[in-house]
User: Which sequence fits this backbone?
């Protein structure tokens, strides 16, 4: 009787398994040989990729940190803007003083004194346009007629009403409010008229030769910059031009102001007729 032979099932390795094992042994030997012959080759290969990864991580971390707080970023931008406004106003004031006599300069600087610092409770567009409600009143020494300045020292308006703990200030840009001042390097007398929403205008003879970029000043003491000429309107045949004035301070982002008694008798006067 013929016997049937079956494959041994207890064989440890098949031919295919032996070939894969041999390949693995050869790969390990090859890696070991390369590492022995060139010990830093793998690090040299990986170094560029590791450097790129580290750079991306640093850049991502910097971006995340810089925008970690939207409120902090906005506050920082506003602080830098206020510092820039203060520098522009101070530069304009010093430029004007340099063109005056020593006596005028002394008068303009000795009158400046610290006043009452007040936080803005309501401002445009939350409160009435071109009006500020402040958190200091009669108990802090605030009285009608005190002039209002931004944190950068730019004149804004005049206190027109007070209570024990609060006060109200009308800004120079309030509709039809008229303020006496000067325009340009030659200090041409001008009447500044508010148009609301932070807009100021003034009408001057064309012969005054006031140009875009010239500063507009008001008493403060001395001559303090309030804005800059943004546009000059007028027909070529007209003897007068209208100055469109951009305030130096952003009225819509005021956080605090300073109230001072300047001694110049600044008051709010309303125009009887509307200028162009």
Assistant:
């Amino acid at each position: 009787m013929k016997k049937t032979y079956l494959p041994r099932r207890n064989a440890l390795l098949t031919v295919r398994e032996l070939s894969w094992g041999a390949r693995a042994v050869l790969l390990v030997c090859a890696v070991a040989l390369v590492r022995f012959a060139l010990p830093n080759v793998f690090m040299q290969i990986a170094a560029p990729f590791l450097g790129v990864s580290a750079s991306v991580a640093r850049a991502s971390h910097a971006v995340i940190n810089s925008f970690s707080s939207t409120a902090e970023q906005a506050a920082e931008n506003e602080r830098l803007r206020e510092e820039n406004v203060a520098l522009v106003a101070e530069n304009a004031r010093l430029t004007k003083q340099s063109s005056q006599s020593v006596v005028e300069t002394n008068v303009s600087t000795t009158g400046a004194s610290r006043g009452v610092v007040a936080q803005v409770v309501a401002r445009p567009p939350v409160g009435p346009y071109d009006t500020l409600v402040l958190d200091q009143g009669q108990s802090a020494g605030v009285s009608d007629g005190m002039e209002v300045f931004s944190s950068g020292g730019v004149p804004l308006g005049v206190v027109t009403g007070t209570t024990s703990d609060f006060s109200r200030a009308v800004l120079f840009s309030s509709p039809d409010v008229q303020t006496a001042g000067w325009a340009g390097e030659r200090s041409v007398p001008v009447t500044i008229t508010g148009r609301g929403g932070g807009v100021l205008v003034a009408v001057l003879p064309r012969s005054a030769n006031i140009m875009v970029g010239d500063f507009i000043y008001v008493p403060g003491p001395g001559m303090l910059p309030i804005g800059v000429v943004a546009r000059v309107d007028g027909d070529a045949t007209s003897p007068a031009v209208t100055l469109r004035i951009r305030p130096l301070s952003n009225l819509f982002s005021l956080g605090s102001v300073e109230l001072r008694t300047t001694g110049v008798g600044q008051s709010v006067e309303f125009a009887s007729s509307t200028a162009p």
